[in-house]
Please model this.
Amino acid sequence: MSRQIYKTDLSDKQWKVLEALVPQPSRRGRPREHSLREIVNAILYVVDGGIKWRLMPHDLPPWQSVYYYFRLWTKHGVWETLNAALRERVRQKAGRNAQPSAAAIDSQSVKTTEEAEVETCGYDSGKQVKGRKRHLLVDTLGLVLKVIVLSASVQDRDGAQMLFSQTRKALTRLQKVWADAAYAGPQLGEWVKATCHWVLEIVKHAETVTGFVVLPKRWVAERTFSWLGRNRRLSKDYERLPESSEAFIYIASIRLMTKRLAHA
Model:
């Protein structure tokens, strides 16, 4: 590259991991001016730096071109597809089956900005947060299986039901899901068993223990939220649309797994 190197740039090994998975643009229209590697580098710069599209450095591709690919790939589900492909490879590298048999679910309420569409936001009275809620399903390694972003007013049990409905057909080996007390209640457990044929196990605090303790099995979801939080774009929900919020979470996950595979 003829420009300065940024910390977020893909190394040659990392790009080799992604290159075959990134969809090639149509050959119709005028010739492409910027390489796909530079487009991905620019998107990673936005995710890690937490900047606005219009504030991208001038030595990266124009923000209009980068945003075009971000929206195009978001609309066609490319980020989720990339995340799934890389997750299977990471699991296999770790000696696991490509499809998980157990998972953990958790949610995270985050504030939004004035850019967010009003009808997509709400108030989480439990966390006292006005904004949106990220519902995250991860495997036992902490790798993202599915994420949906809803209004913060949506209860965890309702969000879990929507998430499970969207992913149950793809997770063919899944048998058990661990969750915290927010998902307790026979209604959700019976629905999960009847509809998804999974077991929803509620992991509770021991009555004899006071203060903060790491809950076994379920703590992997909290750790994943911590990994994602290293990306400044995810410190809040800065997006106008929930699907853009979901895309950035998948991108942060893709970046993490790409580093692991390149290192391995």
In short: The beta strands are 102-111, 122-124, 129-139, 144-151, 176-179, 199-202.
